[in-house]
Amino acid sequence: MGFDTPLTRRLGIRVPVVQGGLQWVAYAELAAAVSNAGGLGIINALTQPDQEHLRREIRKTRELTKRPFGVNLTLLPALNPPDYPAFAEAIIDEGVRIVETAGNSPGPIIKQLKAAGIIVIHKATTIRHAKAAIKLGVDILSIDGFECAGHVGESDIASLILNSRARQELGDVPFIASGGFADGYGLMAALSLGAAGINMGTRFMCTVEAPIHLNVKQAIVDADEHQTTLILRRWKNTSRMYSNNVTAKTVEVEVNSRTGEFTEVAPLVSGARGREVLVDGDIHHGVWYAGQVMGLIHDIPTCAELISRIEDEAGNTLARLALSSSSASESRSRL
Ligand SMILES: Cc1cc2nc3c(=O)[nH]c(=O)nc-3n(C[C@H](O)[C@H](O)[C@H](O)COP(=O)(O)O)c2cc1C
Hints:
This protein is of the alpha/beta class. The protein has 2 domains: 6-205, TIM Barrel, CATH 3.20.20; 214-292, no CATH class. The protein is built from 13 helices and 11 strands. It has helices spanning 6-11, 28-36, 51-64, 84-93, 107-115, 127-135, 159-169, 184-193, 202-205, 214-222, 245-256, 271-280, 303-334, and strands spanning 17-19, 41-44, 69-75, 98-103, 119-124, 140-144, 150-151, 175-178, 197-200, 228-231, 239-242. Strands 1-9-8-6-5-4-3-2 form an 8-stranded parallel sheet. The protein has a 3-stranded antiparallel sheet with strand order 7-11-10, with helices on one face. Helix 6 links the parallel strand 5 and strand 6. Helix 2 (28-36) runs parallel beside helix 3 (51-64), helix 3 packs parallel to helix 4 (84-93) and helix 8 packs across helix 13. The protein is globular and about 70 Å long. Flavin mononucleotide is lined by residues 20-23, 25, 44, 72, 74, 102, 123, 144, 147-150, 178-181, 199-203, 205, 289-291, 293.
């Protein structure tokens, strides 16, 4: 099926499907596979230890695909924050055309990227933050509903309402629906709500090219929509994770701690342990991101198979809707 949306036109892609900027997953191999299949692949800047490694990953992606791809730069509160301007400098120097920003206080980074003429997609979990990002000059919003893997925000508004609100409130600025999408039916639903395309995180984690342990992919296939846990609400950093022994322990401490000191949960939620899960495949070793959309994921396809299936499902849905609308008008005219 041929798509023509503000997203396909603006980014120069064939299918309006974006691969989420997945920490410890979104390396060159995955991003290039998505871009080669017609979507927008994204590599994750902070998965690289420093500016030089990010430069190499960008060059590697360019060797693997001639199609457009992007870089995700996520700005999260940290005691020792990464050198964000240096990462942005690498992105600009390497001639990347599309960047997805996410997280807090993105103003200075967005300014730096826009001054270099880069198309900036900013991820938001509320309409208020989306509007603030538009004032900062972003080109496209990615609207992340409560179903999503990772940082869900603190408002708990699911994709159906949030994306409809985006259509009502964001004027001409195109937006991508994110959180809870895995197939062509979801894509058509998002387009109906007014989105210009979809962003998928958990679904792309569960593909052949995602460079993570097979046990993690199999755990996603085996799980259903009930197997996620929200952690860190007490510290206003609510995150949706795959439910395992460590999320259970984290919630127990979170609910029962008298002091409310973050240091009590810090060893449980350590990023290093989460990364080890993805590399070694022990799914109960640490916390790792996954969304409710696990309930819709039943296999581990290649990115090309997945995107081609999404095109077919979207085409079939369109045909089915066209058919039922013509039979409805037929029966109306018979009355
Ligand atoms: C393993 C994993 C790592 C993620 N890391 C990031 C990240 O570093 N930055 C970010 O903006 N979003 C991150 N996300 C969120 C995704 O980009 C995307 O917004 C989310 O997965 C969409 O929800 P879905 O999983 O229902 O598709 C991550 C998600 C997963 C599953």
